[in-house]
Structure to design on (517 residues):
């Protein structure tokens, strides 16, 4: 945790930051082994530049690499870059490539290839959801074959962790002509330890070992990885017990203890930076009124939510930025107080409550959480209809302009894959981030809040950024565009002979280091 915070805080310093060697020493392994991991849903799109969800990013992490990235411990490391240098005023960043780096077909990774890849990402004609993440890039200079410089349109204090985001993958330029739709379904042109074999939507995604992977230290230790979408938690557990699956994620909180006692199974529990909340569409009906939004925060018992829904594996959220992220603060508290909630509703003009609809994913865990929230709100006269959807349908419904938007409430979780307060706040609450641009599902719009985000981004000085993001968090807490719930723990399980699988703090399952003893 401290390593990540330190590196995030150093962005903009005039220091040369040397990277950590990619990968770990190859361990004794069964190179012919095949790993199947059951996950709670299917991928949506396997093109990193157009990916919205962590399960898709988890699959992609085996196929693609960025210039820098985060390892399984959420430590910033070099991937295709061996080192990098950030300008003193955070107005540019220069990467020095590893000369050994190659795409999966053996083509060398050059500074020109990096430029072409990011130029395609930044092209508005491609309508990619991650273009906005890198929109601060104004020019890309090829200084020599192994050196590429990104010039920014303005100082951007979060530039290094932004490049470490999974969407910062470098893709072989010659495959980009196949187009967005093709690459979403056929993730090719990467530099990672695995290559794509096939994707039967709703059934499986299979990757096979990249026998020409450029970094021997990080080479795959199994022959293949298969991702199996299994929405039903009990089916994931049963498959692990019988050996059908070698790993599962997530593990239902209520089944952790029973799994821990079983021979041949290892349960892993780790902290996360996943903030869970209910976004309320602040441009619609009752949710326009801040008193209503605050009332709903008092109406939900967050501590009981964590005990009942998560089995105690988590903590109450006290800010839109979870404690693991750089510049997080404790912004306040909404203690459980249904009497106060009713008083606020009456003051807002809703003495008898109202009705609304809550969108939620169709996994067992998500439906359970939504049902708890439904029951809590019913006690203050707010009657909620829960509408579960599969990942693809939910994503399609959400990313619609507000004028055509049917979203009223949405149960969501967000892990900032940059580990920085900027990406914990800006995509979720900035006015410029309303869907379909980004993920401001509350359609929250506040000019003062936006100005705090700008102050944080326009400086590389940690003290300036800390003050700006603290003010932004306090304002978002008071305005309550969300029902703030909690920060969940990551829980996954493997067969005891399967090692090397981790789930990062940002909820991305990292499987490329898996091996079988």
């Amino acid at each position: 945790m401290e390593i990540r915070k330190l590196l995030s805080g150093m962005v903009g310093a005039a220091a040369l930051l040397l990277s950590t060697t990619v990968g770990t020493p190859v361990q004794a392994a069964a190179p012919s082994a095949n790993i199947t991991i059951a996950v709670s849903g299917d991928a949506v799109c396997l093109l990193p530049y157009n990916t919205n969800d962590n399960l898709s990013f988890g699959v992609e992490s085996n196929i693609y690499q960025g210039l820098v990235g985060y390892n399984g411990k959420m430590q910033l490391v070099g991937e295709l870059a061996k080192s990098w240098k950030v300008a003193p005023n955070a107005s540019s960043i220069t990467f020095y490539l590893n000369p050994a780096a190659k795409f999966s077909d053996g083509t060398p990774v050059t500074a020109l290839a990096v430029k072409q890849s990011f130029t395609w990402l930044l092209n508005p004609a491609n309508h990619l959801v991650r273009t906005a993440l890198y929109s601060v890039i104004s020019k890309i200079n090829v200084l020599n074959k192994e050196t590429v410089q990104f010039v920014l349109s303005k100082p951007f204090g979060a530039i290094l962790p932004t490049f470490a985001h999974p969407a910062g993958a470098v893709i072989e330029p010659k495959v980009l002509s196949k187009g967005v739709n093709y690459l979403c379904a056929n993730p090719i042109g990467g530099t990672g330890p695995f290559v794509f074999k096939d994707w039967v939507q709703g059934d499986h995604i299979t990757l096979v070992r990249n026998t020409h992977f450029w970094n021997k230290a990080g080479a795959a230790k199994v022959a293949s990885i298969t991702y199996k979408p299994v929405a039903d938690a009990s089916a994931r557990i049963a498959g692990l017990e019988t050996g059908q699956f070698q790993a599962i994620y997530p593990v239902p909180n209520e089944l952790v203890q029973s799994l821990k006692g079983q021979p041949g199974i290892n349960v892993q529990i780790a902290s996360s930076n996943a903030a869970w909340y209910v976004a309320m569409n602040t441009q619609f009906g009752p949710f326009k009124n801040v008193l209503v939004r605050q009332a709903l925060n008092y109406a939900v018992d967050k501590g009981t939510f964590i005990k009942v829904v998560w089995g105690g594996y988590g903590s109450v959220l006290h800010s839109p930025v979870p404690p693991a992220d750089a510049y997080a603060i404790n912004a306040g508290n909404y203690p459980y107080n249904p009497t106060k909630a009713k008083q606020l509703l009456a003051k807002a003009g809703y003495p008898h409550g109202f009705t609304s609809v809550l969108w939620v994913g169709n996994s067992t865990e998500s439906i359970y959480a939504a049902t708890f929230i439904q029951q809590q709100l019913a006690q203050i006269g707010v009657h909620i209809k829960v509408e579960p959807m599969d990942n693809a349908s939910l994503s399609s419904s959400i990313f619609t302009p507000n004028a055509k938007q049917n979203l009223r409430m949405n149960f969501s979780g967000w892990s900032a894959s940059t580990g920085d307060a900027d990406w914990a706040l800006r995509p979720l609450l900035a006015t410029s981030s309303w869907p379909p641009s980004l993920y401001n599902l509350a359609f929250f719009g506040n000019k003062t809040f936006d100005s705090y985000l700008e102050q944080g981004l326009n400086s590389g000085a940690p003290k300036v950024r800390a003050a700006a993001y603290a003010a932004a968090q306090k304002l978002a807490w008071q305005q309550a565009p969300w029902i703030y719930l909690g920060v969940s723990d990551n829980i996954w399980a493997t067969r005891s002979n399967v090692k090397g699988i981790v789930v990062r703090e940002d909820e991305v399952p990292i499987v490329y280091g898996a091996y079988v003893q």
